[in-house]
């Protein structure tokens, strides 16, 4: 990718510092105003004070690239921020590589965390390449995740001395909490608990211990309200950043203004979704499926599975600007195949990408291939 292009995108997303600094002639006063997040100014300014030349080579920045679509990703970013400071770059799966390509050319980057972003056959090679470059530049890189991963990728990452924290049995935030407990406050265990609930992983060894600290109903409502606020604000990156900051500062979801009111709006939308799914859903022998037009596919997919009476549900939404479908797949308790693995291979074979857990996964499928994706998936899950 051309250097100029990378720089432009970098500037757009919260990390204005590098680009801004290069242009400034020496105006020290300009630095603080450039920052979007005020709190970190003090920490960074002290390292930036030295003369022009020294500044150029100093790597001081901490960045966490995390998943923006659910409570686990947002909460991981929040705990990394509490433990290490720095900024979050929040992305969905299709945006993951773009974000990595952005940070790789950031001359200020010192330490990078990548959270809750599973890899697929399509992305893993490029992922290793980019991380290799980062490591050559002496950037410390930590990858924390719980999605199914190719063991060869783990080997490759460890070889280039990327710190890999990976356990398919605990959600990412719980793993962040577990790895950095000493750098986190007590409230972090609550943030991790909510993430575990949202990822259906509050019954796992560490997740269940954390849940026990809190009243179950209190944790459930907090996790749910948080999730609805995240899902309902996917197109408002500033709000998602705000959530990361508030969680990092140990706010309960109910202490963040208007979250419960917003959750009520989401609940109403979901109840309308039930009616729409009843009307628009189609079935094949082994699955129910539906194209979603006016909401996210992931919000509808559980209804598609449940209301179809099948053990697998598929919801897909066109991303017009990308010529692809964003696909969500869910399996019931009776579903005995590993949907994440099947979908990874299938989507990749159709020129897309995908993957995830045994009973919950997602994919990106080129628009003309969606029919094929459905019929093939139907065949492979019987
Ligand atoms: Mn997760």
The H-and-E topology, N to C, reads as HHHHHEHEHEHEHEHHHHHHEEHEEHEEH
Largest sheet: 6 strands, mixed
**CATH architecture annotation of the largest domain:** Alpha-Beta Complex
Q: How many separate domains?
A: 2
Q: Indicate the structural class.
A: alpha/beta
Pfam family, one: DHHA1
Keywords: Exonuclease, Hydrolase, Nuclease
Organism: Nitrosopumilus cobalaminigenes
GO molecular function, one term: exonuclease activity
What would you say about this model in short?
The protein is an alpha/beta fold and 382 residues long. The chain has 2 domains: 250 residues, inorganic pyrophosphatase (n-terminal core) (Alpha-Beta Complex), CATH 3.90.1640; 107 residues, Diaminopimelate Epimerase, Chain A, domain 1 (Roll), CATH 3.10.310.30. It has 18 helices and 11 strands.
What does this structure look like?
- It holds the Pfam family DHHA1.
- This is Single-stranded DNA exonuclease RecJ.
- Keywords: Exonuclease, Hydrolase, Nuclease.
- It comes from Nitrosopumilus cobalaminigenes.
- InterPro entries: DDH_dom (IPR001667), DHH_sf (IPR038763), DHHA1_dom (IPR003156), Nucleotide_metab_enz (IPR052968).
- By secondary structure, the protein is an alpha/beta fold.
- The protein folds into two domains: 250 residues, inorganic pyrophosphatase (n-terminal core) (Alpha-Beta Complex); 107 residues, Roll (Diaminopimelate Epimerase, Chain A, domain 1), CATH 3.10.310.
- It is built from 18 helices and eleven strands.
- The strands form two sheets. Strands 6-7-8-9-11-10 form a six-stranded mixed beta sheet, sandwiched between helices. It has a five-stranded parallel beta sheet with strand order 2-1-3-4-5, sandwiched between helices.
- Helix 6 runs parallel beside helix 10 and helix 6 packs antiparallel against helix 11.
- The longest helix has 22 residues.
- The N terminus is likely disordered.
- It binds manganese (II) ion.
């Amino acid at each position: 990718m051309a250097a100029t292009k990378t720089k432009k995108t970098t500037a757009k997303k919260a990390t204005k510092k590098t680009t801004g600094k290069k242009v400034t002639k020496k105006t020290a006063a300009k630095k603080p105003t450039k920052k979007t997040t005020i709190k970190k100014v003090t920490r960074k300014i002290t390292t930036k004070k030295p003369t022009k030349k020294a500044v150029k080579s100093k790597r001081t920045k901490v960045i966490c690239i995390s998943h923006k679509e659910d409570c686990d990703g947002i909460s991981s970013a929040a705990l990394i921020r509490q433990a290490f400071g720095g900024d979050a770059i929040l992305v969905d799966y299709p945006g993951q590589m773009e974000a990595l390509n952005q940070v790789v050319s950031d001359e200020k980057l010192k330490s990078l965390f990548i959270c809750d972003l599973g890899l697929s056959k399509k992305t893993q090679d490029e992922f290793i390449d980019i991380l290799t470059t980062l490591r050559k530049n002496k950037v410390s890189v930590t990858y924390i995740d719980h999605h199914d991963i190719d063991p060869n990728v783990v080997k490759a990452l460890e070889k280039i001395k990327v710190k890999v924290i990976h356990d398919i049995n605990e959600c990412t935030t719980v793993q962040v909490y577990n790895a950095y407990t000493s750098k986190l406050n007590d409230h972090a265990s609550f943030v991790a608990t909510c993430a575990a609930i949202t990822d259906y992983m509050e019954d796992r060894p560490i997740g269940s211990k954390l849940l026990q600290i809190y009243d179950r109903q209190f944790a459930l409502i907090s996790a749910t309200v948080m999730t609805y606020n995240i899902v309902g604000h996917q197109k408002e990156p500033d709000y998602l950043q705000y959530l990361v900051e508030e969680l990092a500062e140990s706010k309960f979801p109910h202490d963040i203004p208007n979250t419960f009111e917003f959750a009520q709006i989401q609940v109403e939308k979901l109840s309308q979704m039930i009616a729409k799914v009843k009307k628009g859903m189609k079935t094949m022998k082994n699955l129910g499926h539906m194209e979603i037009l006016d909401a996210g596919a992931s919000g509808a997919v559980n209804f598609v599975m449940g209301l179809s009476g099948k053990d697998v549900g598929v919801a897909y939404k066109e991303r017009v600007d990308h010529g692809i479908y964003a696909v969500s797949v869910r399996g019931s308790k009776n579903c005995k195949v590993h949907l994440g693995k099947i979908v990874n291979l299938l989507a990749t074979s159709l020129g897309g990408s995908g993957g995830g857990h045994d009973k919950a996964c997602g994919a990106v499928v080129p628009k003309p291939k969606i029919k094929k994706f459905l019929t093939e998936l139907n065949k492979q899950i019987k």
